[in-house]
Amino acid sequence: MPDSTQNSEFDYVGHDLDAMAVATNYNNWLLSLIEPYIHGHVAEIGAGIGTFSRQLLACQPQTLHAFEPSPQMFVRLSESMAGIQNLVPVNSTIGDWAHTAASRFDSVIYFNVLEHITTD
């Protein structure tokens, strides 16, 4: 798999993620929209610092692959979620896993991600 840590495209310091971490009502509302579909093997795209990952884990998926391409955010995600058995932090995009994604994940979730995708 390609190493996204070498690509400045993914340099992101995530100040907005700290602010969104305390948006409890917003995050609860997002979860309420998708909670019935969280089961089995789940992929979260753009996991950031793990705020929404924690909510997804409360739904008890078999595994949660938390994809975060930003090296800075990945460090924070990995540190804050260390030791959680069914969490797999991934410093990459799901595009690097596209050839296996259809057979690997029962649900793929991404919130607050589209604004970071370039249109090139």
How is this structure best described in words?
- The protein is α/β, with parallel strands linked by helices and 120 residues long.
- Helices cover 35% and strands 14% of the residues.
- The protein contains 5 helices and 4 strands, in the order ααβαβαβαβ.
- It has helices at residues 15-20, 24-34, 51-58, 71-80, 98-104; strands at 41-45, 63-67, 87-90, 107-109.
- It has a 4-stranded parallel sheet with strand order 3-2-1-4, covered by helices on one side.
- Mean pLDDT is 80; it is low at 1-7.
Short description, anyone?
By secondary structure, this protein is α/β, with parallel strands linked by helices. It is about 35% helix and about 15% strand. The relative contact order is 0.22.
> What is the number of helical segments per DSSP (H or I, 4+ residues)?
5
The coarse silhouette is: globular
Mean pLDDT: 80
Largest sheet: 4 strands, parallel
Instruction: Name the beta content range.
Output: 5-15%
Helix content range: 25-40%
User: How many angstroms separate the termini?
Assistant: 22 Å
By oligomeric state, this entry counts as single chain
Rg over C-alpha atoms, rounded to the nearest angstrom: 14 Å
Strands, count? 4
State the low-pLDDT regions, or none. Answer: 1-7
State the secondary-structure class.
alpha/beta
Q: Could you give the order of strands across the largest sheet?
A: 3-2-1-4
Order of helices and strands: HHEHEHEHE
